[in-house]
Amino acid sequence: MFIVGLTGGIGSGKSAASQWFEKQGIQVVDADIVAREVVDVGQPALKEIATAFGDWVLQADGSLNRRALREHIFQSPESRHTLEAITHPIIRKSIIEQLNAATSPYVILVSPLLFETNQHELTDRNLLIDASEEIQIARASQRDGQSIQQIQKIIAAQMPRAEKQQRADDIVLNDGHLKHLYQQLIALHENYLNH
Question: GO terms for CC?
């Protein structure tokens, strides 16, 4: 199976790109969705997180208080490493299972931390959806309702844009309209079909 890693910073347009690929009949494995699934109520990772951090990470219904944990880990690199040590191996295992089950001509692995978590090792080619930091902030603040400061912290915690550009095999600049994004994806889709 030919696997294309799709990455980009917050607000870059990863979701728009992955949805476009899905409309072309290409299966998509989304690392963010997998990351949410592995910490659902009843999953072993959730219990490990509560043990490591305390019950304050749980909401009244027993689910993960994502916002509180996110704010905590962006203030504490040590806590972020603890969380990653718990979740990343479980996430990777689930991603591999889903990639192996794919039946489309190729499969997309969407991951905002494709390079940071070494998920690029699972791929044959890597596509960066790129946007300027100003556009990332504008899109993410509109979409998520987060403050500019929170978004800047997320951007700062991710691999620098220039490094992602160096590591990517393909780069799509998404500073404009969706139509422009889709036009760029058409050519890449054809290339991926003919891998």
Answer: cytoplasm
Any binding-site annotation on 9? no
Q: Is 93 annotated as a binding residue?
A: no
Same domain, 130 and 187: yes
Confirm or deny that 13 is annotated as ligand binding.
Answer: yes
Please tell me whether 14 is known to bind a ligand: yes
Classify 158 as helix, strand or coil.
coil
Please report where in the chains the tokens 């749980």 appear, as a residue.
58
**Does 15 count as an annotated binding residue?**
yes
User: Are residues 114 and 194 both part of a single domain?
Assistant: yes
For CA atoms 116, 122, 126, 127, the dihedral sign is negative
Q: What is the pLDDT along the chain (195 residues), one digit of tens a residue?
A: 999 999 998 889 999 999 999 999 999 999 999 999 999 999 999 999 999 999 999 999 999 999 899 889 888 889 999 999 999 999 999 999 999 999 999 999 999 989 988 999 999 999 999 998 889 888 888 887 778 888 888 888 788 999 999 999 999 999 888 999 999 999 999 999 998
Q: What is the DSSP letter of 160?
A: P
Specify the CATH number for the domain of residue 84: 3.40.50.300
Is position 132 annotated in a ligand binding site? no
Domain around 124: 1-26+106-195
Q: Are 43 and 99 contained in the same domain?
A: yes
CA-wise closest residue to 126 among 37, 3, 1: 3
